[in-house]
Amino acid sequence: TMALRALIFDFDGLIVDTETPWLELVRDAYRRHGRELPAEIWRQFVGTHRHPLEHLRELVGPAFDMTAERAALVAGDTRDTLPPCAGVRELVAAAREAGLRLGVASSSSLDRVDSELRRLQLRDAFAAVRCRGQNLRAKPAPDLYLAALEDLGTSASEAVVFEDSPTGTRAARAAGIYTVAVPNDVTRGWPFDHADRVIDSLVGVTVPRVRRWLLTP
Is 12 a catalytic residue? Predict the structure, then answer.
């Protein structure tokens, strides 16, 4: 049987629910220009590193000041004040106690993910933190997950990934890893065709339960 040796987590929307306030900020930007942000457009951006204002710039045309709009987003950004999502601390602690190796694979920048993990006092828990910009393609390419596996010294069949976006689940499955989707308020109800399992939250997720998932896909 396959032994569970590692857990790999996405960051945005999974370790911290950054997706909800970020969506509100971007919606506000669209409304300032008299537009509404279509749900299907937002779906294309979640889990990638593409900037959601690119679509608004296309709609508005030459008058759009990307520098000013980005600055407004940064000024209103409260993501670095948020607590971790429910169940994250407990699962991380339980996994460490069980001797599992832990990693993060994120399409966000290493600077932000690293500083956020430190703020939450979770950085020391993760032996691997792989982010875009390390000569790795962003999700849905499998690069970030393959690099995390390498850092953790585990094979794909010995790991389980937790993701909140379809883009992320596609990346993890492309790396050959058992993938659990944990939708948040923004991604709930989206199609998770590439996930092996979809759960409501990380609350109550135990290491024995994750082991059972891996044994009985």
Answer: yes
Distance CA 186, CA 164 (A): 9
In this structure, is the dihedral angle defined by the CA atoms of residues 18, 191, 158 and 155, taken in order, positive or negative? negative
How far, CA to CA in Å, does 39 sit from each of 13, 14, 46, 130?
Answer: 17, 20, 11, 28
Task: Point out the catalytic residue in the list 10, 151, 164, 196.
Answer: 10
| pLDDT reading at 215 higher than 90 | no
- Give yes or no: 111 in active site: no
The residue count for the chain:
217
Give backbone dihedrals phi and psi of 114, rounded to 5 degrees, phi first.
-60, -45
pLDDT digits 0-9 by tens, 75-125? 998 888 899 999 999 999 999 999 999 999 999 999 999 999 999 999 999
Q: Tell me how far apart the alpha carbons of residues 142 and 47 are, in angstroms, rounded to a whole number.
A: 13
Name the one residue in this structure whose structure tokens are 């932000």.
112
